[in-house]
Amino acid sequence: MSRRCELTGVGPMVGHNVSHSNIKTKRRFLPALSPATLQSDALGQSFRLRISNAALRTLDFRGGLDVFLVKARDEQLSPRALKIKRQLKAKLAEAKTAA
Q1: How far apart, in Å, are the Cα atoms of 59 and each of 9, 47, 99?
Q2: 3-state class (DSSP) for residue 53
């Protein structure tokens, strides 16, 4: 399983461990990923995604999964999140034409 956030695309970064004697050794900074069950209001479903803690805070700030996915760029989203976004856009377009 890849260490990449499914909503923001954040992945591992590379840096150095620096000792007291200033010796540098390579290390990886892994993102803080956690499994989260997110509710979509428009679709009436819940989805289980592996997202970073920062993305979870952003979801709360923006007002939920639906708003986040509509504004998110497709390059950042995982294939699963893209599938949810397509379903969401189809549902919103259907609701718009019905109204």
Answers
A1: 14, 14, 28
A2: helix
Residue ranges in the chain assigned as alpha helix (H): 53-62, 65-71, 79-98
Burial of 37 (0-12, 13-18, 19+ CB in 10 A): exposed
Whether the Cβ atoms of residue 5 and residue 31 lie closer than 8 Å to each other: yes
CA atoms within 13 A on the CB side of 68: 24
CB 71 within 8 A of CB 62: yes
Mean of pLDDT over the chain: 95
**pLDDT of 40-64, one tens digit each?**
999 999 999 999 999 999 999 999 9
The pTM assigned to this predicted structure is: 0.85
Residue 1 in this model has a pLDDT that exceeds 70: no
Q: How far apart are CA 51 and CA 37, in angstroms?
A: 10
